[in-house]
């Protein structure tokens, strides 16, 4: 099976990237299963979601680069004996730093932290073919097939972004590229750092308990804002506190495009996101809920043209070659919030107890990502960074978030 690439992604197919674009979906499972059952479930998973088990063929049909499932090895499965509840985070740190071999594939692998009663599964996806929602769909379907070896699921092949983008947006993208001085991607113009020279990566798990999660959601409702906006405020203020001369901070938000396309792409394994950049006035002393409302309004007012003009989207939409953009981390933090994950908690004799997702590799000491998922009423996050200040930043951010939730509600002025 082949999946044709857009013209702009062809350069990536040929040259690859010198860094890892991996991210993980980590889950805690209560209940027993066998190694051979997991191996068989992974084999069937690649049939349901073929894009997770592909390689790049630079000379596909008609000599045009494509993803192909032909000749792709089995999904790698590594088994580790589980000793503590924290072991999974160390395995995530190890796995997301290992780049995908695009020429051999697959673009997906699994780590099983095996325990007698409780296990952890770490599913590793590549951002070239998957977004955070894809990781959740892969987890759900893997558990369904692990619990029921006889279950038959219909293959869910994703459309190309180029085939489901509104026509006006596709025209706009190609006009922008033709009017620019872009040149085809080469392995020398990516502007990415030397992956081997940067400081060690750390994954910090964060969790609000059920009551804390409910209190945050309710307070956001009363303040007329969103949970994402509250997180933007709480996690940007510490940067302004450290640099009071630079009170305006910037947050990157991955934006779900699945509901903005010509036809639904729910439940498919693919990548359908854009990026939104929100600048916030975090002047010391400013009310944090005012900052949150500023973030909420900014996110609500993003235009379709803005969403489809982001290079990672243009690369998938364009008919013409596009230079791989230089990566400048001119924002403080990326907050990738999947929101409330509505997948079952029970799969036969297995119980899904927790999800930490997405946790993505970071490529610089100033590159930081907060991955957020709310499952079964509990918000869980991972703060991934190569910044040695990360533990202090996360601690302060959680303090601010708690202060926001519990500060007295201001009465409306008559």
Q: What ranges have pLDDT less than 50 throughout 5 or more consecutive residues?
A: 182-192
Q: Tell me the series of helices and strands, N- to C-terminal.
A: EHEHEEEHEEHHHEHHEEHHHEEEEEH
What is the helix tally?
A: 12
Radius of gyration: 21 Å
Percent of residues in beta strands = 15-25%
The neighbouring-strand order within the major sheet is 5-6-7-2-13-12
Mean pLDDT: 89
Distance between the first and last residues' Cα: 65 Å
CATH architecture level-2 label of the largest domain: 2-Layer Sandwich
Mind summarizing the main beta sheet? 6 strands, mixed
CATH topology of the largest domain: Chloramphenicol Acetyltransferase
Shape: globular
Q: Please, how many domains?
A: 2
Overview of this structure, please?
The chain has two domains: 2-147, Chloramphenicol Acetyltransferase, CATH 3.30.559; 161-406, 2-Layer Sandwich (Chloramphenicol Acetyltransferase). It starts with a strand and ends in an 8-residue tail after the last helix. Helices cover 33% and strands 24% of the residues. With 414 residues, the protein is an alpha+beta fold. A hairpin with an 8-residue loop joins strand 3 (55-57) and strand 4 (66-68). The model is unreliable at 182-192 (pLDDT under 50). The longest helix is centred in the last third of the chain and has 17 residues, at 390-406. Strands 5-6-7-2-13-12 form a six-stranded mixed beta sheet, with helices on both faces. It has helices at residues 10-15, 35-48, 87-96, 132-147, 161-164, 167-179, 210-223, 227-242, 288-300, 304-308, 311-317, 390-406, and strands at 2-4, 22-30, 55-57, 66-68, 77-81, 108-114, 118-126, 202-207, 248-256, 273-281, 333-340, 346-347, 350-360, 368-375, 378-385. It has twelve helices and 15 strands.
């Amino acid at each position: 099976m082949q999946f044709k690439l857009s013209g702009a992604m062809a350069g990536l197919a040929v040259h690859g990237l010198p860094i890892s674009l991996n991210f993980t979906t980590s889950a805690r499972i209560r209940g027993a299963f066998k190694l051979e059952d997991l191996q068989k479930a992974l084999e069937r998973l690649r049939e349901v979601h073929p894009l997770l088990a592909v390689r790049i063929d630079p000379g596909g049909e008609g000599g045009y680069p494509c993803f192909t499932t032909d000749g792709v090895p089995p999904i790698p499965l590594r088994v580790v004996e589980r000793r503590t509840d924290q072991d999974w985070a160390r395995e995530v740190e190890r796995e997301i730093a290992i780049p995908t071999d695009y020429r051999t594939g697959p673009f997906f692998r699994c780590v099983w932290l095996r325990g007698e009663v409780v296990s952890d599964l770490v599913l590793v996806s590549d951002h070239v073919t998957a977004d955070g929602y894809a990781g959740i769909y892969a987890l759900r379907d893997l558990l369904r097939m692990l619990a029921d070896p006889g279950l038959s699921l219909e293959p869910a092949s994703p459309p190309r972004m180029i085939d489901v983008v509104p026509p006006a947006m596709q025209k706009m993208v190609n006009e922008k590229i033709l009017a620019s001085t872009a040149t085809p991607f080469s392995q020398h113009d990516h502007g990415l750092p030397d992956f081997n020279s940067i400081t060690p990566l750390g994954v910090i798990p964060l969790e609000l308990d059920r009551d804390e999660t409910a209190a945050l959601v309710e307070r956001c409702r009363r303040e007329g804002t969103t949970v994402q906006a509250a997180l933007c405020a709480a996690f940007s203020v510490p940067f302004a506190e450290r640099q009071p001369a630079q009170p305006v901070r910037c947050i990157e938000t991955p934006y779900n495009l699945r509901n903005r396309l010509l036809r639904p792409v729910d439940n498919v394994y693919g990548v359908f996101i854009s990026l939104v950049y929100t600048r916030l006035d975090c002047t010391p002393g400013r009310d944090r809920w005012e900052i949150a409302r500023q973030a909420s309004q900014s996110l609500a007012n993003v235009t379709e043209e803005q969403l489809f003009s982001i290079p990672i989207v243009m690369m998938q939409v364009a008919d013409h070659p596009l230079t791989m953009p230089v990566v400048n981390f001119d924002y403080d933090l990326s907050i990738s919030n999947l929101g409330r994950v509505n997948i079952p908690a029970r799969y036969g004799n297995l119980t899904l107890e927790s999800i930490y997702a997405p946790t993505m590799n970071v490529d610089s000491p100033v590159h930081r990502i907060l991955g957020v998922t709310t499952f079964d009423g509990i918000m869980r996050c991972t703060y991934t960074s190569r910044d040695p200040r990360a533990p202090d930043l996360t601690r302060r951010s959680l303090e601010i978030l708690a202060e926001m939730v519990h500060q007295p509600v201001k009465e409306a002025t008559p």
